[in-house]
Write a structure and sequence with these properties.
The structure is a homodimer of 342-residue chains.
Chain A lengths: L5 H8 L3 H8 L7 H14 L5 H7 L5 E6 L5 H17 L2 E6 L7 H11 L4 E4 L7 H10 L3 E4 L9 E5 L1 H14 L5 E4 L6 H16 L9 E2 L5 H12 L7 E4 L2 H14 L8 E3 L5 H5 L6 E3 L2 H13 L10 E4 L2 E3 L9 H5 L1
Helix pairs in contact in A: 1-2, 1-3, 2-3, 5-13, 6-7, 8-9, 10-11
The structure holds a DNA duplex (30 and 30 nucleotides).
Chain lengths: 342, 342
DNA sequence: GAGACATCTGACATCGATGTCAAGCGCAAA
DNA sequence: TTTGCGCTTGACATCGATGTCAGATGTCTC
């Protein structure tokens, strides 16, 4: 099966290859009749330009890179789904890359990979989006970048984010409104800047309600189930325990849930548990988790959109902020009576 | 930053571009001294051949396609992780594609995408790996294919699989050994051939133990949590219920677990639940799920391996069978006394 | 010493598209 | 009529690599 080329189309349409190229790229300066005629041949033959040749001769690229730290996380799956759907619609392809900082030479490997294959743009997910070396690299290679939920502002890259702080605050306020006074908090992976934002939101809500923050009620975590389980066991051991626990993401909240089950603590009657992210698993738990719905899918789609808008949206590295939704399910409930009396 | 080309290296090394090409491709007929000298320049400059140019001028490609039905499933994440790791090591890149059969013209879209971008090989996951139109397409486009867990044998494509039937049988035997006589079964998505294999294994074990199969104990499912929940609720309603339920995958088993929780049925004391796949979530449940550990990561890695072995392993579409591991956790236990007396 | 042969090497065409540029055309202004 | 300009078109070079092939060595044989 010999590939169909521009030349074939040109011959069939009785014009030069260059004119066909003009038509498929929607360039100006082609007579309407000619354009229509060429288009007809293109459609009839089902011609598709060879992306590699295109890439080689022009500057653009139809490949977007999706960069991950850990492709196994629920978060990664959501982002990928959103990006993939948008790419499909726009005729782009998604190349997935995994990057970790654990080996020396990781940056060189990245650079080598980038130099062997020019990307039309790159989507950086947390925590990669906050590694200055990576941002430098992409800037140096002149590859457009969109950062998802970055920790700071960088003039060189666009960003798609969410008000993590506000969401965490709102969720905490919901717990307080349910009568909870003694709330435990499990921190996220400190590599992710979102972890700090969520903690800030939690603490702001507590302070605003005039509730004291007891240091022993805040435990470190790393966004994994295992960490949530460990922290949950510590928070729930002994008689003096919080009436609610807010874990900085759903996987950890699930860990807390399991810890509570093991300890025979009823959720939500004796203990309320809240997570963050609205991962698929939040709905698969029992009871289903109260959490903050993050529009991961939409954020990824927006990132693709930004990368594929060529000249139209050149207005200096835009930053998009998408809305969250508080999603209260059955893992949270009114604080037990003993608690409200305190 | 102007890209570094073959020509630059050639000039610096004082040879022709073609000779440099020979060196980087490890071709014969280059004097050892020359080879060493060129290699030195390549290393010093950190030269990386442009993959697109390479692809255009030769026949090969460094891009592998990973084809999914549903990229959000836990299964997909595992496969992707395995494939990605292997690709990185081999200097390949992974392009992820999602294909569904819900729109007319899906096949044409696929073909268009393939024609615009030649792939070095494709990995087809279930249920895509059993769509004859797709296999035809890849054969027609002359793209090497590896199928993961296919339902049948196809001379045109290699396969990486697991003994689903044997695993399901072994898991069922384990339940029977625990004293269970009345075991419910929740079928998988009939689009996936593995679903049928697992049911066969279940039924074979039941038959071998001389246990009757009651039609009302086998419910349809589709591998989703929701389906598991629904089936679980049906199986557990009323007084006459099985003492164990075997769901054809972990997500559905999780649904059964939640149904049991809701109904106030203790697991595993009053009900044993088993899944299949050993998805990440199997460990995040409480109690953690007994299941069959499928080597998804290793299977994907093996698939990449098969696709990137060029002439060495041309021995007629090999088929690899990887071993499973029975993983009994806390969601299964001895059958309650009333049951064993039956 | 001539011929045969294996070993090296580079000039050149090629893959399939796009960028550049000049030429041909029609039409309006001078 | 001439000049000038805007529209339309295609010839040709180019992107960065590899395939082909011919020529240049050196070695071995008769």
């Amino acid at each position: 099966m010999k590939p169909l080329t521009l030349k074939d189309v040109a011959r069939q349409a009785g014009v030069s290859p260059k004119t066909v190229s003009r038509v498929i790229n929607g360039e100006a300066y082609v007579r309407p009749e000619v354009r229509a005629a060429v288009q007809k041949v293109v459609d009839a033959l089902g011609y598709r330009p060879n992306a590699f040749a295109r890439e080689l001769s022009s500057a653009r690229s139809f490949l977007l890179g999706l960069y991950f730290d850990d492709p196994a996380s629920a978060y990664a799956a959501d982002v990928q789904r959103g990006a993939l759907a948008r790419c499909r619609a726009l005729g782009y392809h998604l190349v997935v890359e995994q990057v970790t900082r654990d080996r020396t030479g990781w940056l060189e490997e990245c650079e080598a990979s980038l130099r062997s294959m020019r990307l039309g743009g790159a989507i950086l997910t947390p925590p990669l989006c906050d590694w200055p070396e990576l941002l430098d690299l992409f800037a140096r290679m002149d590859v457009a970048v969109v950062r998802i939920s970055p920790g700071d502002v960088d003039a060189r890259a666009a960003a798609v984010e969410m008000d993590e702080r506000g969401a965490a605050r709102e969720l905490t306020e919901a717990l307080i409104a349910l009568g909870h006074r003694d709330i435990g908090f499990i921190q996220g992976n400190p590599e992710h800047h979102a972890a700090a934002r969520r903690q800030e939101g939690f603490e702001a809500a507590m302070a605003a309600a005039g509730l004291a923050l007891h240091p022993e009620r805040t435990l470190p975590g790393d966004f994994t189930f295992r960490a949530g389980l460990a922290a949950g066991e510590r928070l729930l051991s002994g008689r003096d325990r919080p009436s609610a626990i807010f874990a900085a993401n759903d996987e950890m909240a699930l860990g807390v849930l399991v810890a509570a089950m093991r300890a025979g603590i009823a959720v939500p009657d004796q203990l309320s548990i809240a997570g963050f992210d609205d991962a698929t698993i939040a709905r698969m738990a029992w009871p289903p988790l109260s959490t903050v719905h993050q529009p991961h899918v939409e954020m990824a789609a927006a990132a693709v959109e930004l990368l594929t808008r060529p000249a139209g949206e050149q207005k200096a590295t835009p930053s998009l902020r998408l809305p969250y939704t508080l999603t209260l399910r059955d893992s949270t409930g009114p604080a037990p009576a003993s608690e409200t009396q305190r």
